[in-house]
Design a protein that fits this description.
This protein is an alpha/beta fold. Helix content is 44%, strand content 14%.
């Protein structure tokens, strides 16, 4: 009987995690533990209805009219079922940072489909979605919500592992937390109990809010720093994303009936 194999993108994620564990000796781990934590300190916006998602995406699309480019730290969370043959569950949370000032958490676990305005946002020619294994995440969104994502994978996704290897002229199998250590000289908390927690529960816990926001935020600031280093190393000249707060603020979201502000 042929041995069952994980999809290629899941193998890459597992390889990155194993490489990180195997490559750090105890002394290195001890040094890294003393580094400051990456912590998202901006505005956190938790939304769980399609209507509220549309409010946010429409506002961002409107602001895109005045921008040349929008860099978005992007990530997903889903429940994991360790029973044989089950594996990963359906996407439960979409988190993204369009700037260092705001992070959106869309709790999509009960949605049958993604609204068209959200797809228009992530496929907009001015939008770049940045993350580790970002293409795998986008393909998963496509499978879970039955949408065509091939053009998004091709035109909007920026893989941080590839960018880091290009900037540093090396070949490495990066995880996000290793990139944070190497690029930012900080550490990204990845507690196992939160990573494997129930992302389908409504509402999420404060620990889940923090974990999700920190991941999307870390992707954004790692990208920004890599682009700065790219210029410094004379690999290629380019623009660095700004910290302008993009998307609607709390006052603009008051019209969304199920809007919840974890900061309050």
């Amino acid at each position: 009987m042929e041995k069952r194999r994980l999809p290629e993108w899941m193998q890459e994620r597992a390889a990155a995690r194993n490489f990180r564990k195997e490559s750090q000796d105890p002394a290195e781990r001890k040094v890294n533990e003393k580094k400051p934590l990456v912590t998202f300190k901006g505005k956190l916006r938790y939304l769980y209805t399609v209507h509220d998602c549309c409010c946010v995406c429409e506002a961002i699309l409107k602001k895109l009219e005045t921008l040349e480019e929008l860099i978005v730290g992007f990530d997903l969370e889903w429940p994991v079922d360790f029973r044989r043959g089950r594996g990963q569950g359906r996407t439960a949370l979409i988190q993204f940072c369009p700037s260092q000032a705001v992070c959106y958490l869309f709790h999509v676990i009960e949605w049958n489909k993604l609204p068209k305005v959200f797809v228009n946002f992530i496929s907009h020619p001015k939008v770049k979605l940045v993350g580790v294994n970002i293409r795998g995440d986008i393909w998963k969104l496509g499978r879970d919500f039955d949408i065509s994502v091939a053009p998004i994978v091709e035109n909007n996704a920026v893989e941080l592992r590839h960018l880091a290897n290009k900037v540093f002229s090396i070949t490495d199998c990066w995880s996000l937390d290793r990139l944070v250590v190497y690029v930012l000289k900080k550490q990204l908390a990845k507690p196992e109990d939160v990573r494997l927690s129930n992302w389908a529960q409504i509402p999420l816990t404060n620990s889940q809010f923090e974990y999700a926001a920190n991941d999307a935020y870390a992707s954004l600031i790692v990208y920004n720093r890599l682009k700065e280093l790219e210029v410094e190393f004379n690999v290629k000249k380019g623009n660095v994303a700004t910290d302008e707060c993009l998307g609607p603020g709390p006052d603009e979201l008051q019209g969304c009936p199920h809007y919840s502000n974890p900061d309050s």
